[in-house]
Specification:
Largest sheet: 7 strands, mixed
Shape: elongated
Number of domains: 2
Number of helices: 6
Distance between the termini: 38 Å
CATH architecture of the largest domain: 3-Layer(bba) Sandwich
């Protein structure tokens, strides 16, 4: 995991901020920037202050102004920018969120309660698991969800990448430079990634795709040794020898702190209006945790700007 030297990070937050921001990824940090621009005080509460999931992306090529930039560097720039506008970056875990007619409250893991007039929820989403035998047992022993984090551990080895979307293809391309071979397991008869990512992926001669297939089991002794896949159409099982399994099969929203307070969809994503406000006035949801069609760094940042601009005009 990548940690940044963010300078004067608060270890003891004040009792009140105009804007409470839960989550320190691109969405939350952009919200903090816009709070500062509006002359509002803001605190960003994050367990690790890592810049969010962007820090786990090897190369970002779709952030305007940068043809190519490392995800860790971009995450650091977000944090530095937020700090430059006076945002207080608080290393703490939020364990509970409450509200009354006047304030919103975040309850921290150290027992402290901080209040604010508006709350912006920007916790993002986490990788969805396959929930197959061996996945949990071999996590950290060959099973991983981040090529940028763990790819170097599999240099010269055979690996499996599960999934056929943008993340799977982008991370597989990154891995192809260091591993011996990659077998992509995709449940559909085609990949769903953007064409540019597919073209780039297939420029690597050590990549092949197994279509219409699902992972049935991950096996090994002390570490991953093989992956059992089953064909959706024929039911035929195949054993793929591999020492690593990289899983990219979607996301699960981290909405636990709000899902019993605000409206969510059947998948747990938080419902908002065009201003990013939930059905509870003064509580906003931004980034990957909310219902939306496109989950990208640029749309997460846009959500943060929209939410705080609206809050600034409505509540201050």
């Amino acid at each position: 995991m990548v940690h940044f030297d963010l300078g004067n990070i608060s270890s003891g937050p004040k009792d009140y901020y105009d804007i409470l921001i839960v989550g320190g990824g691109p969405a939350g940090l952009t919200a903090a920037i816009y709070a500062g621009r509006a002359g509002l005080t803001a605190a960003v509460f994050e367990k690790a202050l890592e810049g969010g999931a962007v820090t786990q992306t090897h190369i970002v090529e779709n952030w305007p102004g940068f043809t190519r930039i490392e995800g860790s560097e971009l995450g650091e720039k977000f944090a530095e920018h937020a700090r430059s506008f006076g945002a207080e970056l608080v290393t703490a875990e939020v364990t509970k969120i409450t509200y009354d007619n006047e304030y919103k409250y975040v309850h921290l893991d150290n027992g402290k309660v901080v209040k604010g007039k508006a709350l912006v929820y920007a916790t993002g989403a986490v990788p969805r698991q396959l929930n197959v035998p061996g996945e949990k047992e071999f996590r950290g022993k060959g099973v991983t969800y981040c090529a940028a984090c763990d790819g170097y551990l599999f240099s010269g080895k055979d690996v499996v990448v599960v999934g056929g979307g943008d993340s799977a293809c982008d991370e597989a391309h990154f891995l192809a430079k260091m591993v011996k071979s990659i077998t992509i397991v995709q449940n559909l008869p085609y990949l769903t990634a953007a064409k540019v990512l597919q073209d780039r992926l297939f420029s690597n001669k050590n990549v092949k795709v197994v279509y219409n297939s699902l992972v049935k089991e991950i096996r090994g002794k002390d570490k991953v040794e093989e992956v059992v896949v089953v064909n959706n159409e024929t039911g035929e099982e195949t054993v793929i020898k591999a020492e690593g399994v990289f899983i990219y099969v979607g996301l699960v929203p981290k909405s636990d702190l709000l899902k019993d307070i605000v409206e969510v969809d059947k998948f747990g994503y938080i419902k908002t209006n065009e201003n990013m406000e939930t059905n509870i006035p003064g509580i906003y949801a931004i980034g990957d945790v909310r219902v939306k069609n496109l989950r990208q760094i640029v749309t997460a940042a846009a959500d943060g700007a929209i939410a705080v601009e609206h809050a600034a005009k409505k509540y201050f």
